[in-house]
TrEMBL record:
Assigned keywords, A-Z: Signal
TM stretches of this protein: none
Signal peptide bounds: 1-22
Xref: PANTHER family: ANTERIOR GRADIENT PROTEIN-RELATED, THIOREDOXIN DOMAIN-CONTAINING PROTEIN
Protein name: DUF255 domain-containing protein
Taxonomic source organism: Sulfuricurvum kujiense
InterPro entries: AGR/TXD (IPR051099), Thioredoxin-like_sf (IPR036249)
Keyword Signal in annotation: yes
Superkingdom to which the source organism belongs: Bacteria
Gene3D superfamilies tied to this protein: Glutaredoxin
Length: 131
């Protein structure tokens, strides 16, 4: 019975979905314009434990992943290494920005958020893009 449970856990991890991150801000912006979707820009640092927690929990949740992949153009940036516009300041990390295809900030949210709260943040951002 233990082997069956272990097999089920391994299979669940094997088929877990991932966010379809774009490689660069410029690539994400071009895709956002083309697909008429808002961008989700997440800025982190390598040494940030809250960034790792957001990635390991919230951004690994199947429902969050599905919503991000279907409704946003996501890009994950490293604060001190990635190239992105100066108006995206990330004094606090992790930082989630929601932008239109022209780079206008529609909504932003600093910090780590658990799954249920991040779902609400995504919904709020989608409402703001429709205005």
């Amino acid at each position: 019975m233990k082997k069956l449970g272990l097999l089920a856990l391994l299979m669940a991890n094997l088929f877990a979905s991932d966010i379809a991150w774009n490689d660069t801000y410029a690539q994400a912006q071009a895709k956002a314009k083309k697909e008429a979707k808002p961008m989700l820009v997440i800025i982190t640092t390598e040494q940030c434990r809250w960034c790792r927690k957001l990635e390991a929990t919230t951004l690994s949740d199947d429902e969050v992943v599905s919503k991000i992949n279907s409704r946003f153009v996501p890009v994950h940036l490293t604060r001190d290494k990635s190239v992105y516009p100066k108006n995206l300041t990330a004094k606090m990390v992790p930082m989630s920005y929601f932008l239109d295809g022209n780079g206008k900030i529609l909504h932003s949210m600093p910090g780590y958020w658990p799954v249920e709260d991040y779902q609400s943040i995504l919904d709020d951002a989608l409402r703001k893009t429709k205005k």
